[in-house]
Amino acid sequence: CFERSFEKISFYRGICCMFKLSFKYFLFVFLLIITCGQVFAEETTVLPLIPDLQNSFPHSRYRYTLGGRPAIVNVITIEEESPYEVRLAFGSRKMRARHSVRYIARYAYAGVNAQYFKGDGTPLGLSIVNGKLLTGPLFSRTAFGVTEDEEYKIGEVSLSGRVSISGNTLPLTNINQPIMSSKGAYIYNNLWGRYTPETSSEYYHVVVKRGRIKEIATGRVRIPAKSYAVVFNKKQLKKNLECKARVRYKYTLTPDIWNDMEYAVAAGPVLVRNGKKFIQNQRFQNDIFKGKAPRTAIGFSKDNRLIILTVDGRQKGVSEGATLSELADLMLSFGAYQAMNFDGGGSTQMVINGHLINCPSEKPARKVSNAIVIYRK
Predict the structure, then answer these.
(1) Which of 97, 145, 217, 251 could lock 261 by a disulfide, CB 3.0 to 4.6 Å apart?
(2) pLDDT given for residue 8 in this prediction
(3) Mean pLDDT of 13-24
(4) Which helix (H) or strand (E) holds 61?
């Protein structure tokens, strides 16, 4: 009996040991899978460059497997001490004209699409070129900026200001942007176009020249060169408008650092903040957040190394795109400390030395409002 009991005890001890070993093995495999998923260990292949671009520019191509589906990724990295500089560029002086990235970057070493825009070409959100504000921010969305000292910045930007017109003081709502509110006043200069936007008869369109009212209308008016127009809802006035009355306006961007940017462009949402994944809705449409799509992203490392990335999409079995979460993980894997999303979908384009090196989901390549371009210093 004693021998049988001992055999039973030994048997149960063996079972327990096997269970402990199995559990440890299971835990190890589980943690390995999780860790591998975070660093894209499903599959990563370095792809050859276009022959004309070999060793000519800091660019790489990869084939990833993201969520079990293929994705072709193109990456540009610019070191802080590199001979290149980064700017925002439009294809022409007409801010609302649209062009392919290849055209916008025709005099540059490289370029990628940047800002969201309306069908008529209106860029949506903040844009600054050569230190001059072209368009004001929308919904305090995220922007990418470059200072005069070539330091990069990513953050939310808002605008505040006021317009003094014929004895009335109105809050300044925005500059060269679509009218989205009946409150406050909008400023339009000839960068916007020849005419102010269409509105109902409830709005005044006031042409200002040399600081004084030149024309008052209740419909769109022509914007003279080297001048501007103010558009606002009539109900806000406490005093009647008079021709030749003085008009002044002033504004500031918040945080204050954005008032000193040489180049800036808004898009979003944020992807990485302070080295961690951070995705926040800033009143974007659902199609930006849902599912896999072609994507464009920009970011920088702690040591000011710029990272620009595109993911081709909507090409089944070849490159099916990325979710915003996958895009954030990609930027983190390339060392981004701060990163944000640019316009994507059919707009996603990367050009190097005049070559369109990614494969856009639209043929021919979609015409866009503006692009981040890279010149040699």
Answers:
(1) 145
(2) 41
(3) 46
(4) strand 59-66
